Amino acid sequence: MLGTQELLLFALTVLLVNATPGVDMALTVASTLRGGVRQGAAAVLGISLGCVVHTLAAAFGLAAVLAASAEAFTFVKLLGAAYLLYVAWSMLRAGLRPAAAGAAPEAAPHWRAAVLQGFWTNALNPKVALFFLALLPQFIAADAPSKTAAFLFLGSWFILQGGLFSLGLVLLVAQARRLQARAGLARLLNLGGATLFAFLAARLALAESPSH
Question: Residues 119, 123, 124, 125: is their CA dihedral positive or negative?
Fold first, then answer.
């Protein structure tokens, strides 16, 4: 189809990628624990929109710039790391904020905020762009009539399958969200999430450009 090949293997690869813990999974879980299914689904939507950016970048050669230019890679990765630190700081403040006796639980941010958070977390990660650039060509035939169309098809497949997997994860995690009713557990989740996102930010900032 459209010059693609080994689609069953591609589907299995996408499943394994989605099941591997990383920034996107961490954000999906954290958003769901904080605001339930609606908040988690909003984060998944934002992540999917970020994947649209990476698909277009791979299809039209923009990701190749990140692979070839150490300066471009460094610029984007530092932006991504800074944004992850911002997410960590937000969760840290929520975790350290003392809860007033008898106060109602803190309301989760508007779902649009979760969409934007998911989008920027994914779109500002140059490692995702390079992953798309490295993965998709393996499933495009050398004699494909339009490699751009093949890139777009495989990218759309990746986004759809990944989105469905993540929504399943949201529904699963939402069941555990009921535990937040216990005193202090919501604060521990925020503090744990802040630590995780700070670690992910450091790992991204220290990632080396493939052009080195």
Answer: positive
Interacting residues of 9 by C-beta distance below 8 A, sequence separation 6+: 139
Average pLDDT for 166-187: 75
Indicate the residue type of 157. Answer: W
CB-neighbour burial class of residue 187 (10 A; exposed 0-12, middle 13-18, buried 19+): middle
Query: At 102, is the secondary structure helix, strand, or coil?
Result: coil
**What would the two tokens of residue 173 be?**
């995690």
Would you say 121 and 204 are in contact if contact means Cβ atoms under 8 Å apart?
no
Beta bridge partners of 140: 4
CA distance 105 to 115: 22
Secondary element (H or E) of residue 169: helix 147-176
Q: What is the pLDDT of residues 178-201, one digit of tens each?
A: 655 554 556 676 677 678 778 877
Q: Backbone phi, then psi, for 7, in 5-degree steps?
A: -70, -30
Contact assessment for residue 190 and residue 95, using Cβ atoms and an 8 Å cutoff: yes
CA gap 22, 105 in Å, rounded: 28
CA distance 97 to 91: 10
**Helix residue ranges per DSSP H, 97-146:** 111-123, 126-135
* Predicted TM-score (pTM) of this structure: 0.73
Residues 123-148: tens digit of each pLDDT? 988 878 878 877 888 888 878 888 88
pLDDT at 115 over 90: yes
